[in-house]
Write a structure and sequence with these properties.
There is one protein chain. By secondary structure, the protein is of the alpha/beta class. Helix content is 34%, strand content 16%. The chain has three domains: 125 residues, Fumarate Reductase Iron-sulfur Protein, Chain B, domain 2, CATH 1.10.1060; 170 residues, FAD/NAD(P)-binding domain (3-Layer(bba) Sandwich); 159 residues, 3-Layer(bba) Sandwich (FAD/NAD(P)-binding domain). The strands form five sheets. A five-stranded parallel beta sheet has the order 5-4-3-6-18, sandwiched between helices. Helix 6 crosses helix 9. The protein is globular, with a radius of gyration of 23 Å. It binds flavin-adenine dinucleotide and iron/sulfur cluster. The site of iron/sulfur cluster has 13 residues, from helix 8 and helix 9. One of its GO terms (biological process) is glutamate biosynthetic process. It comes from Imhoffiella purpurea. Pathway: Amino-acid biosynthesis.
């Protein structure tokens, strides 16, 4: 795999970004690719480590050493075939996956890991450029009809796999465009939306029918799909945001992150959004509450709007600068990370608990009252949070974005109808109940209804959604046909 001495000869190199000042004036991608010879060298760093822990670290179990070797040897066409054997959409993961594979790379133990994600992205981008990626139209149709509800990465992967197995697949989406959080959550500057359109064109040729503005459980009762299709896959994501019910929550200017992000992305993608509905950060002191991907996307978008200041606060401790690899490898470590959006400009504060939003006479938020907190473990080893006496303060904020994650899928509508009509079971966290192994994999408690992605596992990552969509499709095919040739 790669060049036996490559990891000793070449240092890790990765894609760079355009300068922050240049990129914050637009919504286009700003990553600068490596050249073909640089990529070949980086592929050569993959050492024949015997047990490739990266396979395990990657949720779709990408066969990473094989395509590293093929890129090193210049056989890019074979590389895209290997890559597609485990991942339907490497152009999405090659751009926005946090790359747990790299944390688990054996070279990461005492050196820097192989630039796996960059190589993945280069392989698939080259595959499209060269015209090597073609629709895989099934030779035989089964006559079975499957409905997939929700068009995020889980729904798209499930639909593509089921169509390739010869089933007639209809993909229903309540939004006006396909893609789920890929479309309206993750901003255009991190993922260009023409990539979703290109996959849709491929899927259409393979036999997937797309239905947008189709809210199942509201516009179309779920019972109708159960009558008309042989199987139904629920892939509606985890859309109920975690709220912050402190005094002043009702003030104008306090919004859920997704309301801010989705309306902005709609405008960027050319849809009409009324000025009254649009949430602008221009000239404002923006406070982002929550430190994850969603928070970062709010920072990048606020800076592109021309915010006066952007501050991101987090209730947890500041993570350590570096992990102790002897303790964490090959797992994903807790360590200080700086996203490209944070790099573009924002102040970051940890141990910050929001106590109250303060408003003016017109009912608009003007500030936030907070207290600093500290964390310690109790006798049973459980983390406990304590406010530091006398640490209270007030911070200016005229736009507050709540980016504290998502609690579970929205229950009103489709899920509630399935609970009432067929006894659909939820897990204790409020997600749709379903296991991932065995004869009942991805099957809900209702016969013929399957579930995958964030709607089943809770808020997660694009790469996990693709894995679940693929595996769910295999389970559906097995259930419909009594056997399946679809890969896991
Ligand atoms: C702002 C933000 C940024 C993120 N950034 C990253 C990142 O950089 N990297 C990463 O790996 N992950 C990221 N994530 C997480 C990732 O986007 C999700 O884990 C992933 O998209 C889940 O895929 P899914 O297909 O299960 O659901 P979703 O992508 O949420 O798609 C579900 C779709 O179902 C539709 N739907 C729901 N109910 C119905 C219904 N009743 N009828 C019809 N349609 C319905 C919704 O409109 C939606 O389009 C981010 C999440 C957010 C919110
Ligand atoms: S999908 Fe993510 S984890 Fe898997 S190889 Fe690509 S970057 Fe790594």
């Amino acid at each position: 795999m790669g060049k036996p001495t490559g990891f000793m000869e070449y240092a890790r190199r990765d894609r760079r970004y355009a300068p922050a000042a240049d990129r914050v004036v637009h919504y286009k991608e700003f990553v600068i690719s490596l050249s073909e010879s640089e990529l070949s060298e980086q592929g050569a760093r993959c050492m024949d480590c015997g047990i490739p822990f990266c396979h395990q670290g990657c949720p779709v179990n990408n066969i990473i050493p094989d395509w590293n070797d093929l890129v090193y040897r210049g056989d890019w066409q074979a590389a895209i075939e290997v890559l597609h054997s485990t991942n339907n959409f490497p152009e999405f993961t090659g751009r926005i996956c946090p790359a747990p594979c790299e944390a688990s790379c054996t070279l990461n133990l005492n050196d820097n890991p192989v630039t796996i994600k960059t190589i993945e992205c280069a392989i698939v981008d080259r595959g499209w450029e060269e015209g090597w990626i073609k629709p895989q139209v099934p030779e035989r149709r089964t006559g079975k009809r499957v409905a997939v509800v929700g068009s995020g990465p889980a729904g798209m992967a499930a639909a593509q796999q089921l169509a390739r197995a010869g089933h007639q697949v209809s993909l229903y989406e309540k939004a006006d465009r396909i893609g789920g959080l890929l479309r309206y959550g993750i901003p255009d500057f991190k993922l260009d939306k023409s990539l979703i359109d290109r996959r849709m064109a491929q899927m259409r040729t393979e036999g997937v029918e797309f239905h947008t503005n189709a809210h199942i459980g509201v516009d179309i009762p779920i019972g109708k799909l159960r009558e008309s299709y042989d199987a139904v896959v629920l892939a509606g994501g985890s859309e109920k945001p975690r709220d912050l019910p402190v005094p002043g929550r009702e003030l104008e200017g306090v919004h859920f992150a997704m309301d801010f992000l989705s309306r902005n992305s709609k405008r960027v993608q050319g849809s009409f959004v009324q000025d009254a509905d649009f949430i602008s950060a221009q000239g404002k002191h923006v406070l982002v509450i929550g430190g994850g991907d969603t928070g970062s996307d709010c920072i990048g978008t606020s800076n592109r709007h021309g915010a006066k200041s952007v501050t991101q606060v987090e209730i947890l401790d500041r993570p350590p600068e570096k992990e102790d690899k002897n303790l964490t490898w090959p797992n994903w470590p807790n360590k200080m990370r700086t996203s490209s959006s944070q790099e573009e400009g924002c102040e970051r504060i940890w141990n910050f608990a929001t106590k109250e939003f303060v408003g003016d006479d017109e009912g608009h938020v003007t500030a936030v009252r907070y207290a600093k907190v500290e964390w310690s473990k109790d006798a049973e080893g459980r983390w406990q949070m304590k406010e530091i006496p006398g640490s209270e303060g007030e911070m200016k904020a005229d736009l507050v974005l709540l980016a504290m994650g998502f609690v579970h899928p929205v229950h009103t509508g489709m899920i509630q109808q399935l609970q009432e009509e067929a006894g659909l079971e939820l897990d204790p966290r409020g997600n749709v109940k379903g296991v991932t192994e065995g004869d009942e994999a991805y099957h809900t408690s209702v016969e013929g209804i399957f579930c995958a992605g964030d709607m089943r596992r809770g808020q997660s990552l694009v790469v996990w959604a693709i894995r679940e969509g693929r595996q769910c499709a295999r389970a559906v095919d097995q259930w419909l046909m009594g056997q399946t040739d679809l890969p896991r």
